[in-house]
Amino acid sequence: MSNLHQQLKRRRKALGLRQQDMEMRIGMPRQQYQRLESGGNPRLETLELVAKGLNLRVMLIPEDKVRTIEEFLTGQTDLTATAEPISDHVADNPWQGLLGDEDD
User: Fold this and answer.
1) Which of 53, 68, 70, 87 could disulfide-link to 26, CB 3.0 to 4.6 Å?
2) How many CA atoms does the CB half-sphere of 49 hold within 13 Å?
3) Can you give the pLDDT at residue 80?
4) What is the pLDDT of residue 22?
5) pTM to 2 decimal places
6) Quick one: DSSP state of residue 27?
7) Are 77 and 69 in contact (CB under 8 A)?
8) Any idea where the domains of the chain sit in the sequence?
9) Phi/psi at 86 (nearest 5 deg)?
10) What does DSSP assign to residue 63?
11) What b/e readout covers 32-67, taking b as 16+ CB neighbours within 10 angstroms?
């Protein structure tokens, strides 16, 4: 079972839900949800639906930030202490100034 599948199962249990409860929450039959939780390969749309039903959000995190985010979520670090300085370089923000927001 992958980390994703384990996270879904842990979250469902933390909310006090059974697999069959997911049908009422998101309209997914128990058998389909059970397959997903036991290692199924969901489409992104299905994963987002399940996440919403479990009060979660699907996010993409850059590989170089994963450890920092995991430490923050487990209370091991304070993100404000590790925050990177804001850069004004156009390569860091190619959209800067496009809408006349240069002074912001």
Assistant:
1) 53
2) 16
3) 66
4) 94
5) 0.66
6) S
7) no
8) 3-53
9) -75, 135
10) G
11) bbeebbeeeebeeebbebbbebbeeeeeeeeeeeee
